[in-house]
Amino acid sequence: MQFAQQSYSHLADLELADHPTEDCGSEVDLLIGNDFYWSFFTRDMKRGISGPVPMKRSLGWVLPGLMPHAPGSGSDVNLVTCHTLRLNTSSCDDLNISRKDEDPLVEQVKKFWELKSIGVSLHEGTAHDKLLDTIRWCDDRYEVSLPWKEQHTLLPDNYALAVSRLASVLKHLRGNPELFAEYSRIIDEQSSQEIISDADPNAPVQLGRLHYLAHHPVVREDKQRTKVRIAYDASAKSTGPSLNDCIQAGPSLTSEIPDVLMQFRYHQVSLVADIEKAFLMVQVAKADRDVFRFLWINDPTSEDPNTAVKCFKRVVFGVTSSPFLLNGTVRHHVSNYEAEDPQFVDDFLSSLYVDDFDGGKDSSGSFPALHKGQV
Predict the structure, then answer these.
(1) Are 315 and 322 in contact (CB under 8 A)?
(2) In angstroms, rounded to a whole number, what is the distance separating the alpha carbons of residues 360 and 370?
(3) Residues 8, 52: contact at Cβ < 8 Å?
(4) For 137-169, what is each residue's pLDDT tens digit?
């Protein structure tokens, strides 16, 4: 500060609010929030040909901007930098604004801050902690619970919406017999593998824990193997919130794509693999399965089939928490080998992107002996 006043004539006669020493700077006496910060300033300021532009406060003049050091003391520094950001934190309910009528710009800002807070949000961190506390080994696979939001609107029984969506899907499928046959085959195969089951009509259901997933085909002709997938819509809503509205997305446990690719290109010998049907390998706790119900028909060849209620027993792709549950489960499993081989665990997890592994070694003989199902 003293050297700055000596260097610039327009600063020479100012009574500064602070007089820091060159070696230790100033001590902080009081932190002023942004809601009061600017009330200390007047409209007075002084400009010179160059150098800082002092601004007058009720406590004295302050010098924001680039400050020169005395010769030999180091490079110039920016002594004062002030950023002010004000966000309206009122909820849509408080403002009496429905999601349908919400300003698109407001929605974009919300998404931006949701992304920025990944990994540091209290609720996101709690979701990961709860996953590690509740995950268990059951029926030869890991079982997880859904990360429900602590306070959410009661999830409605959307059976009528599911019936309407099923009728639309059946109309589309009947116009393409080959697609209809493949669609039915996928559901039959998943039933035989106990990925889905028939819902028990006599089983008690917790209030707000009965929900149906709409579904439709997704056809990818560019795929070599799986050209037809069944997509489940957990964002569909009728008279209340959707399933995705009631569940936390959880923190992002996925490695950054550039990091995975850079590490992959570093190796002389590459190893590429993926976890087969990764989401469907993770089991969902019984208490949460009734929100994974969906409607199908008992006989696809019949002109007037009966409606059947099915239920997923595994993690469903399309639910907002599914990537978090899969990544958390894989990392939890692989971390069990950390005491045995910490370098392998670190290399494996840093080369994993969701269910795709892109790694390698310097030579083919340096790969650890991996057995099917070990990771």
Answers:
(1) yes
(2) 13
(3) yes
(4) 988 999 999 999 988 888 988 999 999 999 999
